[in-house]
Amino acid sequence: MYGAGVAFQPTSSAGGSSKEKKRRDEDDEEEEDDNEGKGTDAWERAYADERSWEDLQEDESGLLRPIDTKTLVHAQYRKRLLLRSSTGGSVASRIQKGLIRYFYIVIDLSRAASETDYRPSRMAVVAKQAEAFIREFFDQNPLSHVGLVTMKDGLAHRLTEIGGSPEAQIKALMGKLECCGEASLQNALELVHGYLSQIPSYGHREVLILSSALTTCDPGDVMETVQRCKRAKIRCSVIGLSAEVFICKHLCEETGGTYTVALNESHFKELLLEHAPPPPAIAEYAAANLIKMGFPQRGAEGVVSICSCHKEAKVGGGYTCPRCKVRVCELPTECRTCGLTLVSSPHLARSYHHLFPVAPFDEVSPHGRPGQRLPTTCFGCQQSFVGQGGAQPSLRTSCPKCNQFFCIDCDIYIHESLHNCPGCESQHNSSV
Amino acid sequence: MKLEVEGLTVYFPYESIYPEQVEYMRELKRALDAGGHVLLEMPTGTGKTAALLSLIVSYSIHKNFKFKLLYCTRTVHEMEKTLAELRLLASHLPTPTSLLALGLSSRKNLCVNPHVLSAQSRDSVDAACRRLTASWVRSLAHDNPQVPTCPFFESYDRAASAGPDALLLPPGVYTLGDLRSFGRSKGWCPYFLARQMIRYANVVVYSYQYLLDPKVATIISKEMQKECVVVFDEAHNIDNVCIEALSVSIRKQTLEARLKATDAGRLRAEYNRLVDGLAQRGNLAITDAWLGNPALPDDILKEAVPGNIRRAEHFLSVLRRLVQYLKSRLLTEKVETENPVNFCAAINSQAGIDQKMLKFCYDRLHSLMLTLEITNTDEFMHIQTVCDFATLVSTYARGFSIIIEPYDERMPTIPDPVLQLSCHDASLAIKPVFDRFQSVIITSGTLSPIDLYPRLLNFSPVISRSFTMSLTRDCICPMVLTRGSDQLPVSTKFDMRSDPGVVRNYGRLLLEMVAAVPDGIVCFFVSYSYMDGIVNSWNEMGILQFSHASIENSTFPMVMLQLATKDVMQHKLVFIETQDVVETTLALDNYRKACDCGRGAVFFSVARGKVAEGIDFDRHYGRLVIMFGVPFQYTLSRILLARLQYLRETFQIKEGDFLTFDALRQAAQCVGRVIRSKADYGMMIFADKRYSRHDKRSKLPGWILSHLHDAHLNLSTDMALHIAREFLRRMAQPYDKTGCGSKKTLLSEEDVMKMSEGAMDTY
């Protein structure tokens, strides 16, 4: 059910970049895999647990019909959207969001991660989804930084330094996949706390723990560490793979994070991706402060210069810090020499939509209010609302600002990918 | 919120109410109207106490406080919880009502005098208090200021002597802690204050013993008028409490200790009689005070103390002869069972003490001790035991038997003679309560099968009902596991329990579960000896691996088995309940710590033990409880056999029925430990093939049965593991607490209004 929710694909040809599409295709495949996995152990389940009759419903004439999964998916999407807008604040009362995030992902590689209740193993699933997550994360938070930490043998180990490049992180993760020993929550938190307490105060400190283990073997009192994280304003979230663990719940409640437990792989993916959009800023940080940033120029091709991040001579590419003229390889980053935050303007622009989200559209009943004539086509894709052969008219929504009507597919596309309402934008243009 | 229950305005301390609470109140209201006894079963975690208190208090407001509520709990902890609930309720009552509610407990829990409190046990606290507050001590102190007295009692007494009105607790709800701090601030003794105030209180919360045990009931409960409503909470074991209240066991040590004490007593007796010759007068005065005793039958009260034990030295010689006789009986080589009538006759012929003299032993001793101004009562405990025995054996001709066992059944080589007077008839102790009070409410989370209780306690309830729990989600998951992964059946039946296959399968079950269940797991075994045995075998098989230090410690019971590197220990720490209370408390503390800090822990415990009865394993402290086997009583015990025979002859209850009922009630009690509220969730595994049989299973309480799906009735270990994993994932998802649509589980004020209107319409 959850898988279907994510795997939905917009019908409009304009919908989704190729990358987006690819991801969704992958997802479809995964879902098939998942179903196969379920098929093999179906004999283990009692028939009662399958609840196949719940997929049926009775229509007006008393015939049994399978429930229209598409409507369900749409309903779920609407629910999620409204939920998000209600928690994230409506357009009228904009709330601050932490756009500059220093984000550590803690991956549990303890013995429990080798269990095979996720196929092929929990560890493989976590790694695969973490990869997708890191890409999505940088897509949505170009100003942010990610680091990886692993837990195994009762120790926590920093896999990668916190940085702004997805590729380096993913490469480091894929090279280190083996699991043994116990997990230690305290060691991981202490490690992350040590690193995160150094970052500048405007940055949002976050930890996401992908936990397979149900126990943690700690050298000392983990409660103290939780309190230290709380004092250091590190927002800790946990996604569990098997069951609810008290200490994780406690950690998340104390530090303002979220605690979720995955039901299956697609649900896990969904939960993971919920962490990609920036969270609301913590009240203490809500006081706006100005951050000095540099917008470096891209160096000319073929110029040899000494790179400050790798400490070696490099040819071509790279950016030059506007203040101290040092060369850095990639953006966003912090200048090694003068400590200036270096970004490019598209990064800023891409973070912008989190602050000004498109308002959720109002649902419109297919028959409309009496005395009001509804347009028959979607404003976005120009497809007719009325299906062929007099089928039920599909769900439609309208933008509260420009009052244009959209089909549900375009609605999803606008809110998930485009972040601009075509109706409002075109209105704006015509008036100018 | 306020709601209407059949015309009665009920004040409820919460904003919303569960539907079963409304139902519960309705039944209760009807019972109160009818003025009869009630038996109500409602699962734990559904706010039974809140519903009960709000209805009865509202009812009594309605009747202008005509009657008192006597609320009996099993433990001090429960008493505190009840009073806290009551306080919340009091803050929601309409303003002009003056509700006075207080808890009453022993001196140990109420005393504020630091010298007295330094004593260890309950008895020594009592004695220390008496040393300071007894009337003769105080009169002595009056003349001689060197004699220590209790300043709190003195000022209490001064206040009390100023008139009954001078000494009043302002209306309100007083927990034991409140009473103590009130006493401290005023300088009054909280214990005596509380005992004084129960006369005026509207609600009194105290322990079962204060009503059921005839010895205590005489002192505390004699002033309660007929219109009282008596509530026994958590009353699933009430028959056992009743029986214990009337059973006495005498060991060799008891008799020996007694002789010494008597000698000392005799010396002082002679001395005292010479000094003021008070014996006779004190005796008569005290006998008067016994009238109004609720628990002893009237005949014993109406009769005067027979002349031949009126004089102290005669009485003492009677006692000495009695002890000699009992001692000679204890020398026996074989097990003897006798009924009280024969026993009394034997005493009469061999020791020359007739039944009537025996009957008055208890009272006579009491008055003697008062006369002798004995304050260190704890040293006289053993004589009191013997006198209790004498009184009981001569008072009741039926429902008792005397069993003399020269050695413990399990250790025949060690002579440990014990003479037990065991009561078989639970109705004897509770009968006065039923007779005396207008409404007695017996309620608990597990009273199934509900029709057996009226027969055991010999009363006819006007209403007996079992409620189920309305749940937003299926938060309990009972399973019956009948076989291991290798499909061999598992059971603790006597002929199977030591089979290595069964032991291994139980071990595998535990092993699989510790890897799949987070935080705390509780395991219950059928007995200490079985637990020791199976844990030893697991250890040998390598399922549990202990560090060397603990294996060398061959006595085995240990507070905490330190973590080692294999199997169960890899996932969770293991803690074991032992017969030692301090050790067990320590183990429990550490268990909780291990659950809190995420290490996870398993607690091995015994059905019918202290842990199974009184300790909650709610939330993460108990995500899973495994009941290894069916906890039948030790069926070769003479006492049990005698009781079974009595039950069959008197109440026509079959042995098998009673044993199964008792075992299943224990099992339900054990597994019920994990779920204490609706927001909680937990799994229960009944690991024995006998649970799948209908006659066993059907005796489980309804709220467990309703969640026991047919698909979960005959599981093997791997299937159970699969279900457990699914269940835990499902439960970890966020959910809507109020429920929705027709499955509404949390009602607001309007909902209740609507519901009652709806009910009107249907009638």
UniProtKB/TrEMBL annotation, chain A:
Protein's UniProt keywords contain Nucleus: yes
Cross-referenced InterPro entries: C1-like_sf, Ssl1-like, TFIIH_C1-like_dom, TFIIH_SSL1/p44, VWF_A, vWFA_dom_sf, Znf_C2H2_type, Znf_RING/FYVE/PHD
Location(s), subcellular: Nucleus
GO cellular component: transcription factor TFIIH core complex; transcription factor TFIIH holo complex
Zn finger spans (C4-type): 321-338
A molecular function (GO) term: zinc ion binding
UniProt biased composition (Acidic residues): 26-35
Compositionally skewed regions (Basic and acidic residues) per UniProt: 36-46
Family to which this protein belongs: Belongs to the GTF2H2 family.
Official protein name in the record: General transcription factor IIH subunit
Organism: Rhynchospora pubera
TrEMBL record, chain B:
UniProt keyword annotations, A-Z: 4Fe-4S, ATP-binding, DNA damage, DNA repair, DNA-binding, Helicase, Hydrolase, Iron, Iron-sulfur, Isomerase, Metal-binding, Nucleotide-binding, Nucleus, Transcription, Transcription regulation
GO biological process, one term: nucleotide-excision repair
InterPro entries associated with the record: ATP-dep_Helicase_C, DinG/Rad3-like, HBB, Helic_SF1/SF2_ATP-bd_DinG/Rad3, Helicase-like_DEXD_c2, P-loop_NTPase, RAD3-like_helicase_DEAD, Rad3/Chl1-like
Residue ranges occupied by any Helicase ATP-binding domain in the UniProt entry: 7-279
Keyword Zinc-finger: no
Main location: nucleus
Single GO cellular component term: nucleus
Magnesium found in the keyword field: no
Protein's cellular compartments: Nucleus
CDD domains the UniProt entry points to: SF2_C_XPD
Listed EC numbers: 5.6.2.3
Taxonomic superkingdom: Eukaryota
A Pfam family matched in the record: HBB
Family recorded in the similarity comment: Belongs to the helicase family. RAD3/XPD subfamily.
NCBIfam families per record: rad3
Record protein name field: DNA 5'-3' helicase
Species of provenance: Rhynchospora pubera
